[in-house]
Amino acid sequence: MEWIGHRRTTFQGELLNPQPGVSAYYNRKGPFFPGLEDQTGLMEDQNGQMVEVHQAPNLTSPSRSSPHSQGSESGERYSRKVFVGGLPPDIDEDEITASFRRFGPLVVDWPHKAESKSYFPPKGYAFLLFQDESSVQQLIDACIQDEDKLYLCVSSPTIKDKPVQIRPWRLSDADFVLDASMPLDPRKTVFVGGVPRPLKAIELAMIMDRLYGGVCYAGIDTDPELKYPKGAGRVAFSNQQSYIAAISARFVQLQHGDIDKRVEVKPYVLDDQMCDECQGQRCGGKFAPFFCANVTCLQYYCEHCWATIHSRPGREFHKPLVKEGADRPRALPFRWC
Known about the structure:
- The chain has helices spanning 20-26, 93-100, 113-116, 133-142, 201-212, 240-249, 303-309; strands at residues 15-16, 41-44, 50-53, 81-85, 106-109, 125-130, 144-146, 149-154, 162-167, 175-177, 189-193, 215-222, 229-237, 251-256, 259-267, 290-292, 299-301, 320-323, 329-331.
- The protein is 17% helix and 28% strand.
- The protein is α+β, with helices and mostly antiparallel strands.
């Protein structure tokens, strides 16, 4: 990898916009208003779970303000996909579109929308897919801020001016370098599955560093088109000891603020590595399809070498990991005879 061993001049703990050297590697295929008391709806908590709320936040106090008044014109860039939660239960797709059309052309979507053929978001939340990124900034400027959350009032046929949660994704929150003096080594990198979508790279880095130490980089996986979190991340360590401690744990409890979720940790599997045993000599120079995550191995193997090495006593129950879609490593459910 051209960036492995490359050192950037940056302060420790610097937040980064996605850089070509980092994103190219990790995405490789070749990155209240009064009068609303006792209203029930769904909003998303910090774990990414939908929770029922019975009273909207009171945003009329002096501590509440518009994001525009706090310097929103700072050049920040955002994903064109925006989460909106706590929608009125009787609001349909056309009414959601009409509520946000003033910010620019958009499409309204929610999980399994096509399959369900429903006109109403079934869980009280949806995603706004804007045509232009500038629409997201206009939406943010129109919101009312309550601590670290944004709200906008939306009306339905039976509910007027209901505050809904607006959660944009800032692109610079997808990457964080904790220790810029260390090179990024893909063989000391772990895949973290089930990451809550509100979690930022800096928060993931701090959690993993507190647990295992030696974190030099953390990244949140985003889809290539909309650059919105996919619910997974990567953490690179500076030393083998921290890396082995993380993958040996297999699961980790992400605790930060309101977030408290158990997630899976696996080695980050590459698809362009030669067999560490034969260097391609026994497989016609093809890339090794298997990676053994057991701490006694931690190597890539071709099929021939996997069978040979794992026929030895004590290794016959090791399971190979293979790279699959969205960079997610998958364990093969078989053992060699």
